Amino acid sequence: MRLPSASAGAAPPQEILRPVRTSYIAITLLVALALNLLILPGFLQILRPDFIALTLIYWVVYHPRRVGFLPAWLLGLAMDVADGSLFGQHAFAYAVLMYLSILLHRRIVMFGMRHQVLHVVAILGVAQLVMLVIRLMAGADFPNVLYFAPSIVGALAWPPLFNLIRVPLRPRADPDAV
Amino acid sequence: MEYSPPPFFKRGPSLLTRFAFFSLLSVVLLVSDARFSYLYVLRQVVAVVVYPVQRLSAMPGELFTRVGDFFVTAGQLQRENDQLKRQSLLDTAALQTQQALTNENQHLRQLLAMRERVSREFIAADILYGARDPFTRRVVVDKGFQNGVKAGSAVVDHAGVIGQVTRVFPWLSEVTLVTDKEQAVPIQVQRSGLRGVTFGIGYDGTLELRFMPVNADIQNGDLLVTSGIDGTYPSGLPVAIVTNIERNAAYAFARITCAPAAGVNSYGQVLIVLTDEKLPDNPIPADEGNAKPKKVRKGAP
């Protein structure tokens, strides 16, 4: 048996989790939306990861049948309106993100946390790049290098988020067990 | 494993098909938003749906501010009170002279049969947050068309113009700051009366006064105030202060950089200025002006 601490680079031991309810998925996505809209002071705002993107990646990678393109796309529209960006910009980015995550999901689960982080930074980076290209085509200027900071912070936030989403899914100890 | 069952199982459209469908839909939205601005209603609908979440997300910040307010010391309050009293005294003096001037102005305008100056209405609003879009400089304020805000209204704070309302939602509006890349404000140099237009630079929070000849009468420290020509910004509001002038005879225009006069990057209370100025009709209707060159080209042999 492999110890959890030794599994940083190799595939993590399969955890037995309780079945996922659709309502739980919806709640996590709504919380992610609220976190994305949370008002933060100056610098934190620049560094804030895209929680919706991370949550979508989690559900697609570990439960690929449960979240489809439509909710992701609608959440993208919500982000566009709340952010005041071009209508369809986040929606397009999330569609790309869904495509990449579904394409890679069987590969990602085979890796340990450290290598999963590398996959996540690539997916988030591509999603941000899509938005950048759209805005540059619409006539905006490239803001600065910090534009890509949310992808890196998001990838670093992947391990804690991974564990956090799983907390309610872990089997509870049965009090009636002998 | 879930994606490799034998092909006779029903699986719905393939991954690539779904991706192509949704990205195509996004592109349609993007083009119609960026080029034609057709999506006003759709944006409003989504805005109403998202509003509760937005309010919920604003709560921690509000709570934080309120807790901060609670721990203000008496000394700070005393100082602020003194300052406000002094300001109020100055304002009262200015107001008294202004009242007389307004009357006189009205009288003179009547005598000269000039157009009446418009009456302005103000809506006080709080800046909720800076829009997260890193490509633009905007803030979101807590009053929308339910409160009478109209798109295109000027937004000012105690020190001057901060921007213009560009999008109105039921309970929120988006204000594009004067430092935004696409924002232009018609101004007048207060000292010399020279007219011009400032443009936001976008990335560094400054403004640029473009198309000013190299020998224009402008100095460092000049205050630029709104000229009121456009009918959007009421005249005489401070916009920016000239910080740097590069006069290079190799170029046709001087390079003039300005710093915004108002607290563009601070959060607080702002006033939305509603003007219903009755401008004389444009001699060339906007559509016709665009269409005319085409007609000429068609008619040309």
Task: Walk me through the structure.
The complex is a heterodimer of chains A (178) and B (301). By secondary structure, chain A is mainly alpha-helical. Chain A has a single domain (19-169), classed as Arp2/3 complex 21 kDa subunit ARPC3, CATH 1.10.1760. Chain A is 62% helix and 0% strand. Chain A contains 8 helices and no strands. In chain A, α1 runs antiparallel to α3, α5 packs antiparallel against α6 and α6 runs antiparallel to α7. The radius of gyration of chain A is 17 Å and the shape is globular. In chain B, a hairpin with a 6-residue loop joins β7 and β8. In chain B, the strands form 2 sheets. Chain B has a 6-stranded antiparallel beta barrel. In chain B, strands 6-7-8-11-10-9 form a 6-stranded antiparallel β-barrel. Chain B contains 4 helices and 12 strands, in the order αααββββββββββββα. The model of chain B is unreliable at 291-301 (pLDDT under 50). Chain B is an alpha+beta fold and 301 residues long. Chain B folds into 3 domains: 15-70, no CATH class; 73-117; 120-275, Rod shape-determining protein MreC, domain 1 (Thrombin, subunit H). The interface between A and B is large, with 46 and 49 residues.
